[in-house]
């Protein structure tokens, strides 16, 4: 949905500048009916979809919490795209920010630790994965947080949708909180979103097992992506264990469903909102 909107807005803006004969409307030409009627309020929580003045005004109006999402760019077997984590965290961040009511969402960090480059290890053994050494990932997240604090955000929330980035985010949160001492902003590492959301236990209550759920690109993430962006699942490539040795899949993604995914998304969002509210206390 965000991609479609991004494609349409420039075209709509261009169309508004020209009349039926292609003559450009100048600033002195009376403006458009939309301008005369007043601008529509911005209905987004993503700061990359806002102008700097809109962000400034949102902060002044009380939107002083900002979510910094991180998401690995990694292999997900032959049935699921490399950007799985990004699509999932975009949807989750949108929901979390709107549920909190006073939050915006920073651009997602999609380069995270995924293994060694030479020799390739972890997900780096699979084409397309991009890795960032943990010390550089931590520095990237640190300076994103410093930037957000400088603009007036008082609560900076770290949420990660993949495993390799969790410890780095937690360490940066502790580092910055020690340095700042509560002066100006506080960083909150929200680990419950990823590791303590209850979704795996719920799947087992539905009759799934550790083996079918798997540990990577199995039922859980496949189901959530089916719910969020089904076009990014290659249905003809779904197979238990990915269908061949070293496929990159652990579990049985053929058992995934959009309904499972709906529940998984809701449980992740609920877990994050609970932990954020407990950490901040005033939302």
Characterize the structure shown.
There is one protein chain. With 283 residues, this protein is an alpha/beta fold. It has a domain at 42-195 and 267-278: Creatininase (Rossmann fold, 3-Layer(aba) Sandwich). Helices cover 45% and strands 7% of the residues. The protein has helices at 2-16, 33-37, 52-60, 84-100, 134-150, 166-180, 192-195, 199-205, 210-213, 219-228, 258-280; strands at residues 65-70, 103-105, 155-160, 186-189. It has a four-stranded parallel sheet, with helices on both faces. The longest helix is centred in the last third of the chain and has 23 residues, at 258-280.
Record the SSE blueprint.
Layout: H1 2-16, H2 33-37, H3 52-60, E1 65-70, H4 84-100, E2 103-105, H5 134-150, E3 155-160, H6 166-180, E4 186-189, H7 192-195, H8 199-205, H9 210-213, H10 219-228, H11 258-280
Parallel strand pairs: 1-2, 1-3, 3-4
Helix pairs in contact: 4-10, 4-11, 5-6, 10-11
Any idea what the shape is? Answer: globular
CATH architecture call of one domain: 3-Layer(aba) Sandwich
Number of helices, where a helix is a run of at least 4 consecutive DSSP H or I residues: 11
Radius of gyration: 21 Å
Question: Secondary-structure element sequence?
Answer: HHHEHEHEHEHHHHH
- Total count of strands: 4
Largest sheet: 4 strands, parallel
CATH superfamily of one domain: Creatininase
CATH class value of one domain: Alpha Beta
- Measure the end-to-end span: 28 Å
Low-confidence stretches: 3-37
- Which class of secondary structure composition applies to the elements? alpha/beta
- Largest sheet, order of strands side by side? 2-1-3-4
- Compute the average pLDDT: 89
CATH topology of one domain: Rossmann fold
| Beta-strand residue percentage | 5-15%
Estimate the helix proportion, in percent: 40-55%
